[in-house]
Amino acid sequence: MRSYSLFKLMGLVIAGVLTVGCVDDVREAAEHRTDVGAVLAATEVLERAEFHHQYEVLAVSNTPAINPAWLGRVSNARTAVAVVDWPHNVQKHAHAFLEASESII
């Protein structure tokens, strides 16, 4: 349970880093032909995964319970992160998220 909570926290951090990193470097996206629409769509999927809520339920609440719908949300987030050609400055974070979430799926 502890490793699952750690994964959720890491997912939240990575989602934030991916979002900030992509917004921060629009010029690099244009130079490397990153599909900005794909980045925005993937960011929306990450947002809908509700990693922060999952973390709060697992780490903060007195009665942590795993919602069965979370598996689908994490799976969708993994797919979204995997298919996007992320800008160079966030690729390592995307790969870290994929590696960390592999053990959950």
Mean pLDDT: 79
Q: Strand portion, in percent? A: under 5%
Shape: elongated
Number of helix segments?
6
Our count of domains comes out at 1
- Assembly state: single chain
Sheet with the most strands? none
Query: Rounded to an integer, what's the Rg over CA atoms?
Result: 14 Å
Care to count the β-strands? Answer: 0
N to C succession of SSEs: HHHHHH
Distance between the termini: 15 Å
Helix content: over 70%
Structural class: mainly alpha
Low-confidence stretches: none
Strands, helices and their partners?
Blueprint: H1 2-24, H2 26-31, H3 36-48, H4 51-60, H5 69-83, H6 88-102
Highlighted features:
105 residues, mainly alpha, elongated
How would you concisely characterize the structure shown here?
The protein is an all-alpha fold and 105 residues long.
